[in-house]
Records
---
Amino acid sequence: MKQLRLLARACAVVVAVAVLAACGSSSGGSSNGGGGGSSSGGSGPITIGASLSLSGDFSADGQAFQRGYELWVHDQNAKGGLLGHQIKLDVLSDASSPAQVVSNYQNLIGSSHDPIVFGPFSTLLTLPAARVAARYGYAFVEGAGGGPAVFGSGLHNVFDVSVPVKDNLVTFARWVASLPASQRPKTAAYATVNDPFTQPQIPVAQSILEAAGVRTVLSKVFPAEVTDYTPIATQVSSAKPDLFILGSVDVPTVSAFVHTFIQQHYNPKAFIATAGPDQGATFVKAVGNGNENGIFVPNGWFGGFKKADSQKMVQEYIAKYGGTPSDVNADVAEAYSVGQVLAQAVQATHSFDNSKIIAYLHSGVTLNSVQGPVKFDSLGENTAQQTLTFQWQNGNLVQSIPTSVAGASPPQYPKPPWGG
Amino acid sequence: MSGTALLQAIVDGILTGGVYALMAAGLTLIFGVMDIINIAQGAMVVLGAYLSYELSAKAGIPLLPGLLITVPVMFVLGVGMEFLFMRRVREADRAAMSILVTFAVAILIEGVLTRAFGVDYVQLHATYIDRSIYVLGFYLPWIYLIGFGLAVVLLVVLYWMLYRTQFGRAVRASLQNRTAADLIGINVDRTRMIAVGIGVAVTAVGGFAFGATNAFNPNSGYDLISRLLAIVILGGLGSIGGAMAAAVFMLVVNDVVAVAWSPTWAPMVFFFALVIVLSIRPQGLFGRSGVRAQ
């Protein structure tokens, strides 16, 4: 009897764990409606598979991506779906693990036979995932795998709808180089996580700045697993560079540097981070109100982007999740753009045949997305957009560089004091 | 590298080590009294941070006074965890099985936190968190000084409780020989339950220190657990003072290597040092045989 009670309790625990794990790791339509079909025949729903980082290091980005995919599905279904088929999402969680993402795409394509797949979040996960899709001959349209590692892999099926990240810092670096010599920073420090998304961006910017006479006083690479940023941030603040460039992939990294800089009474004239400040309200919550002001971040899109479909998507997002345009994570737009580009390819080819979709996307056609135009080169990079640089000004993330873009707010330089 | 930078790295390492000692104290205490390897410790630190966040952001209760609420709440959670999960593990293979059981607990905590708070990062805020004091050419952040001070006070209190009180003797007797402890009238189950409750309650303070120095979300515990386990193994499983010494040692090594050489090599050098120490003293700096005999 006692053993039965123990067994019952054990079962209850296992069930509770399973339910919670399921709550956190799977969502959206989970049905398998694909069947591997590649034609547009029949009238049943079409299932699109995706692996997203709903837990782990990229969970904030992964869940923002999920919202972007879901918003697009909602809008596309309202317009009649794809070739008359309503769309269902089949989302699996990869826990931010490169090993799990491989397993997930094998399941989505090989077992669930989803006829179309979308990309995961991050360059780190896109590369192994795209290789799986390539083995099955699937088109791999993605929005957050823009690192050089993806395009240097020789894959023919990858299409990144966002701006290639290699040149993310170029716009900013050129702006700094263009400043009058009396205003231009004299010194710069660079610290970056060894991630395939962010590390390749740093040398490109560093070479532009050094050519403009900005002397490098510190350059550090740190592992993604680091949990204590204090020594690196303190070393930067001790070097007191005029300009600090941080190669980051998430909010905690930027937040740790910000708080250490404040504690060390160091305020650079300019501070740019490759990712983190683009996370809207989440970023402000982490660094503290007012501390976000003056920080730059490169990106291809922002919540205030003046484009009709972008503004409509932002309104829908706010209606569903609340907040302001500044709170909308750029990941949402990247994911939404994936759906838009895929829809245009399916409609143009009038087919779900992946080989036709790949051929169409490589044809040099210019497509539309909430982030702007999309045109792929032979590697799958989007060549139709330029990187913009955004800056937090008075509590809002605004587009500031290039200054020639309509509606751009002039950069605040030097950066205002912390809390200002 | 200048001598000033080296000294700054050592100071940073000592102060940050205090924060890590706070987070690791509960882990080593629970192992010391239960032979339970609590894989859920990282998740509990994050839970403690969220409790502080809720009290501060939603109820307007400042962080430090809020500990008067979060510590008892975590104590109750610890008692519940011992009763529901740890007690069910067979005595004979407790250490090994506890890894699976506490991993399930970690998933439970993470799931509940994700449901309640989502995955967006948050951080604890108070005026003193971004302030520092200038001493001998160094800016010492108040939050790390507070964390270090709390670590010293708590570890002294825990040490006194375990080795200088009747309850502490009962705890150690329960672990050394359950049958003998029963025979001399110690309520072993109750003693262990309270001890685990205290271990988890201490983690509330660690959660405060972690949340004030790091942006966190429900998944942040995974990054912590390997570090915390390394600290308690180096310090000697079950040793309160060992946790403090090992945390300071680990962070000083980490920070000096990061500054003098490269942050990329910092974890490798620490784990290399860990292997060297364990090859000489397999029981850690303050091994458990010594711990229980004190």
---
Amino acid sequence: MVDPEKTTTRRRRVLVAVAILLGLFAMAMTATPVETPRSVDIVRTAGFIILALVIALRSTTAFSFVGRNAVLDDELTRANRASAARVGFWAMFLAAMVMLVVSFIETVTPMQIMPVLIGAGAVSAALRFAVLEGRGGG
Amino acid sequence: MAEPGLGSTLKDVRTAAGLTQAELAERVGVSRKTINTVENGVFVPSTLLALKLAKALKCKVEDLFFLD
């Protein structure tokens, strides 16, 4: 039988680890923009998109690869997800504002901007969810 | 004037009923963490959860929660 305590702790840890990975991924993509896309760049971009999608879905919805568990998706978890979605939205909004200002100073391509926006939204939502899920553990 | 918060006697009622957080959580179908955060005033439960808690503890919702 699934132990909800252990599962939520594991879910939180995995989410933080994957969010950090996505953040690093986003930074790498922004720092080394692609000029003429090669197969490796397409694979890298696809990997980034899939990772970002999984993080966003896991942080803000009840999406699961292995089916739902009512205890792991209870009222508190749903409230935490709603809060994470709000934080993700604002982080993405602010990142977009920053990139708009940066575009006046320096030429930035969509391939540099998008990872920042997606990364900011997904990573902040994931971290917010992880922090909220950590409450009430003791 | 500040809006009143939600006070809770859930912990007292639960311990008086001889239940652990995990046992109460199982009865109402939520995680133990949810019970913990409700008891500590971190999370304000929905009407549905408040009613479930009251039913599980065989008391009224008013016995568990009050305006602080």
